Amino acid sequence: MKIILTHEVSGLGTAGDVVDVKDGYARNYLVPRGFAIRWTKGGEQDVAQIRRGRKIREIATIEQANEVKGKLEGVKVSLAVRAGEAGRLFGSVTQADVASAIKAAGGPDVDKRRVELGAPIKTLGAHQVSVRLHADVVAKLGIEVVAA
């Protein structure tokens, strides 16, 4: 099935790309979650609009990505969450939580889909998070999860 991606999907493509995927993957995962729309001849106009929006939001050059990386790595991020007595969290820290904590700490605005958690963060303490700014630039960011 031919689809048009509306968001970046790792391993598949970025917003505005027209890709061919298996019918079940598109029907059951990509389209219901809003990551893609079905391809039509009229949809080609949507592709141009999606690409324009992506161009505005994305970091265009490696120099810009390295500049944002320097800003990110200089920010001390602390995230206050509810936790039990043993230091286990009620739930886990999400990508959106990390992105909003970076913004609150005075860092640059980061899209939550660019934040990569190695494994779910479910304990208090220091954790390492990656932020993929460009295809070739990844910022390593240390965050401190503290009890609220």
From TrEMBL:
Classification via Gene3D superfamilies: Ribosomal protein L9, C-terminal domain, Ribosomal protein L9, N-terminal domain
InterPro entries: Ribosomal_bL9, Ribosomal_bL9/RNase_H1_N, Ribosomal_bL9_bac/chp, Ribosomal_bL9_C, Ribosomal_bL9_C_sf, Ribosomal_bL9_N, Ribosomal_bL9_N_sf
Domain Ribosomal protein L9: 13-40
Keywords noted in UniProt: Ribonucleoprotein, Ribosomal protein, RNA-binding, rRNA-binding
Any Pfam family hit: Ribosomal_L9_C
Record SUPFAM superfamilies: L9 N-domain-like (SSF55658), Ribosomal protein L9 C-domain (SSF55653)
Domain of life where this protein originates: Bacteria
RNA-binding keyword on record: yes
A GO-annotated cellular component: ribosome
Family the entry assigns: Belongs to the bacterial ribosomal protein bL9 family.
HAMAP family on file: Ribosomal_bL9 (MF_00503)
Protein function: Binds to the 23S rRNA.
Record-given protein name: Large ribosomal subunit protein bL9
Organism expressing this protein natively: Streptomyces luteosporeus
